[in-house]
Design goal:
single chain, alpha/beta, five-stranded parallel β-sheet, four-stranded mixed β-sheet, 12 strands
C-alpha cells in the first residue's frame, strides 16, 4: 500500500468543516477534496463556507465527476445520510483506499466494513471539540482530535499509514489502548447527555444540577453499561462517573449536538444512541426503560417538525 496523499471528505457539517480546514492547511488545496453532489457543490462555491468568521478556501468537487480512487476517504455526514453518501462515493474507493468515519455511535464502522471490506476501515471517534454550525457558518474554539485504532487481531498497516499521514500534515489524533472500549465509552456519554439535553430542552447546565434531566442522563448511561457488558465490553460505574465529571467541566450554556438538532427542528441521531442500545438490549433480554422513554420522547418531538 502506498502512502496517503489524496483525501476526500464527505459531509460538511461542523465537524466536516473543521476536518476540511485542518487537512487543507496541512496537505494542500489540490490534495483535499470536499465531495458532494453537483447542486450542493455549486451552492458551496457560490455562498461559501465559513469557520470562526473566515471564509474557507476548500476544493469543492462533484463526486460523480471524479474517477480516480482516493487514498483516504473520511465520512463526516449525519447517520441518516450515510447510505446515500456511500453510494455517491463508492467508485472513489480503490484497493489502497483507507476509510474512516467521524459519525457518532458504533454502527458506521460495521456498515462501512460490510460495504468496502473490514481491512479498509480504521475505527475512529471525534472527541474533545465543541462545534456548532448554523447555515454555512461553523464555529469551534477548540478543534479537538480523532481517536483511532483497529480491533484486536486486525492488520494495523492502514492505521500506521494513516497516522504517518496525520503526522506529516500535523493533524491531531490519539491512539486509545482499546478502540472498541473507547468507542463504547463515548457512546455511553452521548446516549446520556445528548438525549437528555434534547428531551428536557437544556444545555450542559441542566445536566450538571439535580433534576429530571440529570437523572435521565445518568440512568441512560447506566443502561449502556449493562448492554456493553453483555456485548463483552468492560464498561462500569467508573465510566459513568468519569463522563459525569467531564460534563461538569463544560460551559453551562453549551449544548450537545442533539439539543442543537431539536432547536433547529432537524432529525437527530437518536437511532445511533438509544436506537442502538434498545436493539442490542432486546438481543440480550435486558430492560432499558430510561432509553425506551427517551427514544419515545425524541420520536414524538421529531414527528411534530
Amino acid at each position: 500500500m502506498k502512502e496517503i496523499q489524496t483525501v476526500g471528505i464527505v459531509g460538511l457539517g461542523a465537524l466536516g468543516v473543521i476536518f476540511a480546514h485542518q487537512l487543507t492547511q496541512g496537505a494542500g488545496y489540490e490534495n483535499v477534496k470536499v465531495l458532494a453532489d453537483a447542486g450542493r457543490t455549486a451552492r458551496y462555491k457560490k455562498e461559501g463556507v465559513f469557520l470562526n468568521g473566515e471564509r474557507c478556501a476548500f476544493h469543492y468537487v462533484d463526486a460523480a465527476a471524479e474517477n480516480e480512487p482516493l487514498d483516504l476517504l473520511l465520512f463526516a455526514v449525519k447517520f441518516g445520510a450515510l447510505e446515500t453518501s456511500i453510494a455517491e462515493c463508492r467508485h472513489l474507493v480503490g484497493p489502497d483506499t483507507t476509510i474512516i468515519s467521524a459519525l457518532n455511535g458504533i454502527a458506521s464502522e460495521q456498515i462501512l466494513s460490510d460495504t468496502f471490506g473490514t481491512e479498509k476501515i480504521v475505527w475512529c471517534v471525534a472527541q474533545k471539540m465543541s462545534a456548532v454550525k448554523e447555515g454555512n457558518r461553523a464555529s469551534c474554539p477548540i478543534f479537538g482530535e480523532l481517536a483511532l485504532g483497529v480491533p484486536a487481531g486486525q492488520d494495523d498497516r492502514r492505521l500506521r499509514l494513516l497516522t504517518a499521514f496525520f503526522d506529516r500534515v500535523r493533524f491531531p489524533y490519539s491512539l486509545p489502548e482499546d478502540i472498541r472500549v473507547h468507542m463504547w465509552s463515548k457512546l455511553l456519554c452521548n446516549t446520556g447527555c445528548n438525549q437528555a439535553a434534547m428531551v428536557f430542552q437544556c444545555g450542559y447546565g441542566g445536566l450538571q444540577v439535580p433534576g429530571p434531566a440529570r437523572d435521565a442522563m445518568l440512568g441512560a448511561m447506566r443502561e449502556v453499561v449493562q448492554v456493553a457488558n453483555a456485548e463483552g465490553v468492560p464498561l462500569s460505574e467508573q465510566d459513568v462517573a468519569e463522563w459525569d465529571s467531564i460534563i461538569q467541566t463544560f460551559p453551562g450554556s453549551g449544548e450537545p449536538s442533539m439539543r442543537q438538532d431539536g432547536k433547529a427542528h432537524r432529525k437527530s441521531e437518536v437511532e445511533l444512541f438509544s436506537g442502538t442500545i434498545r436493539r442490542l438490549a432486546a438481543r440480550h433480554g435486558i430492560a432499558v426503560p430510561v432509553n425506551d422513554q427517551l427514544y419515545r420522547q425524541v420520536q414524538e418531538m421529531e414527528s411534530a417538525y
